[in-house]
Amino acid sequence: MISDKFLSNIKTELEDLKKEGLYKGEYEITSQQSADIEIFHQDERKKVINFCANNYLGLANDRDLIEVGKRSLDDYGLGTASVRFICGTQDIHKRFEGRLASFLGYEDVISFSSCFAANNGVFAALFDKDDAIISADLNHASLIDGIRLCKAHRYFYKFDDMADLEKKLQEAQNHKNKVIVTDGVFSMDGDIAKLDQICDLADKYEALLLVDDCHATGFVGANGRGTAEYFAVEGRVDILTSTLGKALGGTAGGFIASRKEIIDKLRNKARPYLFSNNISPVTAATGIEIIDRIENSRDLIEKLGDNTAYFRRAMLEAGFDLRDPKAVHPVVPVMLGDAKLAAHFAKLMIEEEGIYVIAFSYPVVPQGEARIRVQISAAHNQEHLDKAISAFKKVGEQLGVLKI
Questions:
Q1: Which of 140, 175, 178, 215 is catalytic?
Q2: Rounded to whole angstroms, how far apart are CA atoms 215 and 311?
Q3: Is 359 contained in some domain?
Q4: Tell me: the pLDDT tens digits for 193-222?
Q5: Among candidate residues 54, 117, 77, the one with its CA nearest the CA of residue 249
Q6: In the 3-class helix/strand/coil scheme, how is 348-394 assigned residue by residue?
């Protein structure tokens, strides 16, 4: 029975979040995910330009991919209604995993319902109390939660401090196995991990390297193979986790790529794989088509890069604090600091300027580092970018946040 006191405490906590500008409400999107979307808010529908989706390549509503998905529904139905090792593996799953392994340059791939599930399952399946996990301090919540589920010893290093990483590796030398864990791209800031240096340290101290490449797979690197390609260290990342929920179509699903023996052990030991349904046939079928498209043409990757460079340059010239002026990733954090200010800024952008952006504040980011996280897509055209830049300037001047 839920007591009145229990509910009262929750209501008080929610009211406190609202007062502090930390409450995270949701807008309803009444259209397909795209650069131009329609939202429902305060009893009315409003058309806005979307600048906060992970739809990096703009494929979430691609008409040809939708047709591929429709055909897969006819061929395979809605889903397997079972976990993989019982009767939940269809040939489309195996074809997709093989295609993805070939694209990324790994021996094998195992898919999960999400990358959150993959990261929650990988550590406990592979490492035990005699091992050590050396984790970057800004890693995604799914990595943090997965590490907590594992009995291995834990060490943490500052994500961009290689001297600190080496120190932690030295401290962990007596453990049976050591694994360095890092995001390939840290999604709140768009920072790219120094994988070339991390690989060198992994080799020096005989450590494995696990990289979560969710915000890189499909579009970072010359051919979209992620941060390993970006740093020319392909073949040196031992375990790669990533998602299908961002650049690769935006549906649900995650995966782990590695050596065959490691993948085989995960199929037998990873709890989210053994006890949960896998990706849908639609996700697998469209995933194959997306990988084919990325390999056959760099057009979307190049357009995304051009859009990102244009937007970043214009925002810096306008006087906004982008945290790292030299960054190149399509995650563009517009730093505002104060949570209430960030929330008000986003509200004005959406409701008065028709630019859909969301404020990020604690606990998603550290206290005092609230920001508007803008995400650029290959689906954006010049008009989209210019409207957003103009709106940012207008609201920035109104709220007095411009440095120039």
A1: 215
A2: 18
A3: yes
A4: 999 999 999 999 999 999 999 999 999 999
A5: 54
A6: HHHHCCCEECCEECCCCCCCCCEEEEEECCCCCCHHHHHHHHHHHHH
* Residue-level pLDDT at 43: 78
| Burial category of 163 from C-beta neighbours within 10 Å (exposed 0-12, middle 13-18, buried 19 and up) | exposed
Exactly one of 114, 187, 242, 361 is catalytic; name it.
Answer: 187
**Mean pLDDT, all residues of the chain:** 95
Q: Are residues 83 and 202 both part of a single domain?
A: yes
* Alpha-carbon 227 to chain mean position: 13
Amino acid at 154: R
- Give the residue with greater pLDDT, 177 vs 327: 177
pLDDT digits (tens, 9 = 90+) for 179-191: 999 999 998 889 9
Percent of the chain that is helix, strand, coil (3-state, to 5) = 45, 20, 40
What is the rounded CA–CA span in Å between residue 293 and residue 297? Answer: 6
Annotated active-site residue in 168, 194, 246, 380: 246
Give residue 175's domain range.
63-296
Task: Report if pTM > 0.85.
Answer: yes
Residue with tokens 């782990």: 256
Q: Does the annotation mark 340 as catalytic?
A: no
For the stretch 344-362, pLDDT in tens is 999 999 999 999 999 998 8
Is 394 one of the catalytic residues? no
Query: Does the bond joining 366 to the residue before it have cis omega, within 30 degrees of 0?
Result: no
Domain's final residue, options 296, 311, 341: 296
The continuous run of DSSP H or E covering 37 comes out as strand 36-41
Using alpha carbons, select from 222, 187, 160 the residue that is nearest to residue 330: 187
What is the per-residue pLDDT for 203?
Answer: 98
Per the annotation, the verdict on 380 as an active-site residue is: no
In a domain, 260, yes or no: yes
Give the whole-angstrom CA distance, residue 120 versus residue 139: 13
> Phi, psi (5° rounding) for residue 110?
-120, 135
